[in-house]
User: Fold these one by one.
Assistant:
Number 1:
Amino acid sequence: MTEQFFTYTDKFTNFSQADKDLLNVALTFKAVVAKTELVSYDKRTDELFFLLKGCIRKYYIKDGEQITIYIMTENNFIGAFDSFVTGTKSKETIECLEPCEMLILKRADLDRLYKEVPLMNEFVRKILEQTLIQFQQALTSFILDNPEERYTKLLAQNPEILQRVPQHMLATYLGITATSLSRIRKRILEKA
């Protein structure tokens, strides 16, 4: 299971075999069914997740409505970072949309790895830089693009998500209603 993880880490840094052995000890494998909440609203979390298989979403609840803010598939990290770093209760929920397999890294293990594996600092910095860029691109898209442009970008960048995520969740992710998403999809199909 960790081979897939180390194929991913090799894109960012070159851990030695000794480093990989220490990481192997720190990572815990977990398989869960669809609809499992990895992080629950108003609960603390000390875990980060690296998704090996499946699809996960992160969402907030506002006025009783679930608003999807992030959708993730294989070979990515996810977590409720504010809760993970500060120890406060999470404002978000992280839910598996499919049966998932993942590696889990606990906060205490990450802190230990920072000391035992110096390259871990560089690896995490690069992951955080990548995450910051993704969030900035998403924010920029919400400011500059109309809903149809956001949908078209999603279709071009990550078309398999459209098959893996229910339409009402995709709609909130795009900042629109499910009805608006249906209209956008119909217009795009008519143009094709």
Number 2:
Amino acid sequence: MMSLIPWWFLVSSVFAVTPEQVLKTAWNDKTYLSFEEIQATDSKNPLRSVEGFVSSEEEERDTESKIGLKFQFKSWPEWKTGRPKGTEQKLLRSASLGWALKNRYNTLLIYELNRQKTAKLSQMIQLSERHVQAQTLSLRAGRSTSKSYISARAELVKLKRSLSVLQQERQMLETRIQVWVPSWQEGSLETLNLVSVEDVEQNLKASVVKGDSLTKKIANEEIEQLTQELTIVKGRENQWFKGVDVSQNRKKNDISYEIEVTLQLPFLFSDDLSKQKQNELILKRALKQRDVEETGNRLETLRVQILNLIEIYKDTQKLSRIQGGGLDPLANIERKLAEEQEALDLLNQQQEILSLYLEYLLESEILNNRPEKNYLDKSLKALL
């Protein structure tokens, strides 16, 4: 005999969105797409600008006209200093994809653990309500103090407040997902088969840390840009040859040609604005270099930090397995509450570990270089 399937279940299944569909929207992220507009800055054209001009004057019956071109030249460093074609565009575009993916990964991670925490807190609230009732009966029977009763009541209020915070967080996450996937319906996001902490540990221990982190590469690119800008500013200050004006003059039937050369004599004046600009660039570069040095090996730091947190997580798991027996009903409720609290603490630790793991995947450029998998899914489901 076939069982009837509720119509609302069929509707929610049809419109259900998978985590992979959410992640695929990273390729439509506005920040990622905006980097298509970045242009290479490696032009070897010595000209800064070319302008045409025409003028005419009438004197009695005679007309004098002048037509010509103004050629403004770049300074020598500005002309010769160029970045390799597409370097800046490629790095920023690649990084922006990683940022977009990480943003969606974080949202999916928090959303999934929000589900689990909400379920856990709901169980704890039920236990806590039973605990308050038991404390009430115990207080009436003279086996408990008013302090224990008040403490139980306070704990129940605390749990309800935590549940309210989770509900608000869920609404915020749902709003964010609906921006990425407008067709998404509330409550119809498929469950994420979340990668375990043990899997993360194995991946990190098997990985070999090499090369610079994404953050360091971007910082080095910024330092290179500042150095290039500083070289150009200095070059403009010391530029002798600024431009050439070539013109043709007509007066009656006479035609003449003129060439005017614009020169700058740097030793005759001091450009304080240029020096101020140079000082600003030097300071910015020094601060950025200091940041790079202080950051050190970001990848190795993240790896060690995550592995240390995993050890704490495993120790917490061992403690949570300790069972008590032969307890009275009131003490039994308190034991169950303590177990549920430990399970909730483990979920919070898991969230911290996986959030840092996503940061590691971003910094190691796995997210942008190999984005075809769902790295939060235990079976590494394909995105593309």
